[in-house]
Amino acid sequence: MTKLLLSLHVLAAVIAIGPVTVAASMFPSAARRSEARETTLRLLHRICRVYSLVGVAVPVFGLATASSLGVLGDAWLITSIGLTAAAALILALVILPGQQRVLSGKPFPPPRLGMVTGVFNLLWATVTVLMIVRPGSTTGA
Fold it and tell me: For 59-80, how does the pLDDT look when each residue is reduced to its tens digit (9 = 90+)?
């Protein structure tokens, strides 16, 4: 069962988090270009919104996997949970509303949106490394 949960966790991360990080990263530069079409910006925003909802499966399967492995109290996992929560908050409270402001013509500087998106991506990269390295792991990684 652990292998199934881990497989679902990794698949959910690749399928859900990947598109959000790419679309969120593309949005600020597209917003800066004067020739960018509104349809492009709306599409990128929609990808971020939809896949962020699908992304809820990532921590759900992750917690189920951690529980089956008996590592819920490990420091690397607790750190990963905290970083995941921070990334989710940044997405929900800054990136998605910032994109919506740009789409509605309200002021929200694309460089600020780019910076926050970079932090969001850095958090996910850190979580990915923690999931692979897992300090104290007996796998030899």
Answer: 999 999 999 988 899 888 999 9
